[in-house]
Amino acid sequence: MCQLLLRFGLLGITALTSFSVVGQFSTPSVTLSAISEEDAKRCGMNISTPDMTDIYGKPLHFDCTANGQIKGNDYRIATMDFQYDPNSRRVSNNITFYVGGVELSKAKKLLSSDFFALNDGETIDQFSGKAIHRRDKTYCGLTVTTKVKPIRGSNWTGWIAEDSYSGLPHPSCASPEEYTSRYRCVSLIVGNENMSAAMSQACLLRKSEDNIQVGLSYDIFIEMAKTIRFNEGHIFEN
User: Fold this and answer.
1) Where exactly are the structural domains of the chain?
2) Distance between CA 74 and CA 236 in Å, rounded?
3) How confident is the model over 15-54, as pLDDT tens digits?
4) Cα 3 to the chain's mean position, in Å?
5) CA 127: distance to chain centroid?
6) φ, ψ for residue 146 (rounded to 5)?
């Protein structure tokens, strides 16, 4: 399955209720622009992207030309590469959603092991609003704690999961800085009665930042997530 997760690390998040964020933070002076109607049909959902450009002057955008399968179900893969310089080495360099025509009640069971790293028999509902202290799941030799919290958008509900890491990374760890308190490593599963989407983990700057050369900040991602609206009936249109 094309580039599904790096999980451990790939994953993370904090609370949004009715998609208002619990906790205060300042939002950088970055405007968002909605993707085109054509792209929304191709991606299976509407979403806005920050008005930022990469090292080549190309605007950040979602590419929705790839397809994949997860446990026998077809998904459109929507990816926004936010790495300013592709020659730099970072574990998290994109926001990737897997969008499909699977209702949320089924999707949360199908996707929770891949995107939230739950074990067989564990459910999202079981851990919603709680912290999961991992015993046998680590990344780079780090101990991982995952917090899962409910979120709600314009025509969907779901969960966002945030990983926090403790311990010292071993020398072979790729991009160890991203697993420090400077970053928030998050993933999510959202949907409604007709569609669902899962985002593989991205580690985003905790500090508000409007310079994409430094990285994509968590608060900009939250503003993007608020704009998600499933484009029902148009999934997989080319």
Assistant:
1) 16-230
2) 9
3) 344 444 333 334 567 899 999 999 999 999 999 999 999 8
4) 14
5) 18
6) -115, 130
- Residues 143/134, Cβ–Cβ less than 8 Å: yes
How does 174-186 read in b/e, with b if 16+ C-beta sit within 10 Å? ebbebbeeebbbb
Total-model pTM: 0.84
Residue 232: pLDDT above 70?
yes
Using CA atoms, how far apart are residues 67 and 89, in angstroms rounded to an integer?
26
Cα separation, 209 vs 227, whole angstroms: 20
Confidence grade of residue 233 (pLDDT, cut at 50, 70, 90): low
Going by C-beta distance under 8 Å and a sequence separation of 6 or more, which residues neighbour residue 31? 50, 51
Q: Token digits for 12?
A: 């993370």
179 alpha carbon, distance to own chain's centre:
16
For residue 52, report the phi and psi dihedrals to the nearest 5 degrees: -135, 160
Distance CA 223, CA 26 (A): 12
Neighbours of 31 (CB within 10 A): 9
**Residue 8: per-residue pLDDT:** 34
Torsion angles phi and psi, residue 105, rounded to 5: -60, -30
What amino acid occupies position 227?
T
DSSP string spanning 53-97? B-TTSPBP-EEEEEEEEETTEEEEEEEEE--S-TTS--S--EEEE
- The one-character DSSP state at 119 is P
